[in-house]
Amino acid sequence: MRKKIVAGNWKMNKTFEEAEELITEIADGLDEMDLNDHGVILCPPALYLEMATDVAEESLFEVGAQNVYPADSGAFTGEISPLMLKKLNVGYCIVGHSERRKYFREDALFLKQKVDALLRNGVIPIFCCGETLPEREAGNHFRIVEDQLIASLFHLDAADFSKIIIAYEPVWAIGTGVNATKEQAQEMHAFIRERISGKYGVAIAQDLTILYGGSCNAKNSAELFSQPDVDGGLIGGASLKTEEFLQIVASL
Question: What's the predicted TM-score (pTM) here?
Answer without folding.
Answer: 0.97
